[in-house]
Structure formats: structure tokens, C-alpha cells
Design brief:
By secondary structure, this protein is an alpha/beta fold. The protein folds into two domains: 58 residues, no CATH class; 173 residues, Rossmann fold (3-Layer(aba) Sandwich). The protein is 56% helix and 10% strand. It contains twelve helices and five strands. β3, α9 and β4 form a beta-alpha-beta unit. The C terminus is likely disordered.
């Protein structure tokens, strides 16, 4: 509970909240009118109520954004095994979590072999951004490409791209698994071109750039796609051992009865 006199700093916060709530006249008049009427003592309580409203609205917005994001549940920074990731990658991920790169329309490109934590890290970044009120969509690349292809066949591709444009960030998981037909490559490239220097992408890939001709087939298209993605980007390389391989190895070891501990 706020106590003490109503300070200029509190007056500023009150005005900012009322402006955010689209009450400009109230913001301009409330302090002086309450003061003239001898009710200045209630202004700290009014500020508390407005801050509670702000917090509640923020929570509801985060819940809506999370539902729309399709982010994998539980794939957050809290559950990410950071000890398996290179330290520079961990540091950069947390730095990216402040969301400033979205304001610059930068991309984040995550490379590494399967099982290195790319998808979990990308999802964790998405969760962190949602908590900051940013709109995020997480999707396997092949699924989004199929949806865009269906929209194109229905003559609705511009509408589908406009819908995706509403998201501050698209996370395209496993870009290397696109089926690679000419039509699929075309809609994927169109999506990248539409977001270029306007909206951000996070892309995870098992394929380094030198292998992206397996995705786009045409050397010119491959070069153009890479050029657009890299122009404003952060590149994260996920090295180290495969988490899934290690877990399988540990399960196998646990299943082998040792001479000292016969199987039950």
C-alpha cells in the first residue's frame, strides 16, 4: 500500500497510466481537481488501483499471446539445460530476451546438429518475449509452408501473409525439413521477402548455409534467401553433444544389470 504524500513522481505515473488507458482528459485534470477539492490524500490510493489494473491487463494480454503463440508448453529458460550450451550462446539468448532485436527487425539464426537444444532455446526465447507482451508464433517450418501453399491455391496468400505480419516474431523450427517442391520453396521465399527489414524471424536449422541449396534448389534463390536473412541477424551455433543421444545412452546403461546390482 502506498503511504506518505503524493509526490511529483507519483503524479507522473498516474498521468502515464491514465493516458495508457486512453483517458487523456482525466490525466490532465485529475490531480489539480482533487487537490483543489481538498482530496489530495486519495490520489495515492487511486494510483494503486490503476497500477493493479495495469498489472491485470498485462497478465490477461500475456495469457492471450501465449495461447496464440503455439509455443511448446514447458520449453522455457527455466527448463533449458544451459550447461549443455556454449556460454556465448546462453548469454546472447538472455540478451535477446529483452526484445530489442524485434524493434530493429533483426533475425536470429540457430544452427546445429539434431539434439543440440536449438528448438528448446528458440521456444524459451519465445516464452520470454511473450512475457514482455510481444506477439510470437512458433511453428514447424513444413507445417507453415503447407498452410501458405493451401492459401496460395485458394488465391488467399496475401491475406495469409498479412495475418502472419501481425506477429512481432515468427519462429520457424527445422527449416531443413521443407519438402522442397518448387511451389513450397516459392511460398517460403515469399514469406522471408515479405518480412525482410520489417519483422523478425527465428530460424532453427540442422543445415549450415552451405547446404541450403538442398532447401531452395535454385542457387539464385538460395543466395537471395540467405542474403535477406543474414543482412540483419544474430547467428547462434549450437555445438556439443546430442541431449537425446546422451539420454538414450543413460537409459541403456540403466537397463543393463550390473554384477553388483542384479536386475529385479
Amino acid at each position: 500500500m502506498t503511504t506518505g504524500p503524493f509526490t511529483p513522481e507519483m503524479s507522473t505515473r498516474l498521468g502515464e497510466l491514465l493516458t495508457r488507458f486512453k483517458l487523456p482528459t482525466v490525466a490532465a485534470e485529475v490531480v489539480q481537481r482533487f487537490t483543489r477539492a481538498g482530496h489530495e490524500a486519495v490520489l495515492p490510493t487511486l494510483l494503486e488501483v490503476l497500477e493493479a489494473e495495469r498489472d491485470e491487463r498485462g497478465q490477461r494480454r500475456c495469457e492471450r499471446l501465449l495461447k496464440a503463440s503455439h509455443l511448446p508448453a514447458g520449453k522455457t529458460f527455466d527448463t533449458l539445460d544451459e550447461s549443455r550450451l556454449p556460454r556465448p550462446v546462453v548469454a546472447r539468448l538472455h540478451e535477446l530476451g529483452n526484445g530489442d532485436f524485434l524493434d530493429r527487425a533483426d533475425n536470429v539464426l540457430c544452427f546445429g546438429l539434431p539434439g543440440r537444444g536449438k528448438s528448446h532455446a528458440a521456444a524459451a526465447l519465445g516464452h520470454a518475449l511473450v512475457q514482455r507482451g510481444r506477439s510470437v508464433l512458433f511453428t514447424p517450418t513444413f507445417r507453415l509452408v503447407q498452410e501458405l501453399l493451401a492459401s496460395k491455391r485458394d488465391l488467399a496468400l496475401p491475406r495469409a501473409l498479412a495475418k502472419l505480419d501481425a506477429f512481432d516474431l515468427l519462429i520457424l523450427d527445422d527449416i531443413g525439413y521443407v519438402q522442397q517442391s518448387a511451389e513450397e520453396v516459392e511460398v517460403l521465399f515469399t514469406l522471408m521477402a515479405e518480412r525482410y527489414e520489417r519483422r523478425s524471424l527465428v530460424i532453427t536449422s540442422n543445415l549450415v548455409f552451405g547446404e541450403w541449396d538442398r532447401i531452395f534448389k535454385n542457387p539464385m534463390t538460395t543466395a537471395a534467401a540467405i542474403d535477406r536473412l543474414v543482412h540483419h541477424s544474430v547467428i547462434l551455433e549450437f555445438n556439443g553433444k546430442s541431449r537425446r543421444a546422451d539420454e538414450a545412452h543413460q537409459r541403456a546403461r540403466g537397463a543393463d544389470p550390473s554384477p553388483e546390482s542384479p536386475a529385479s
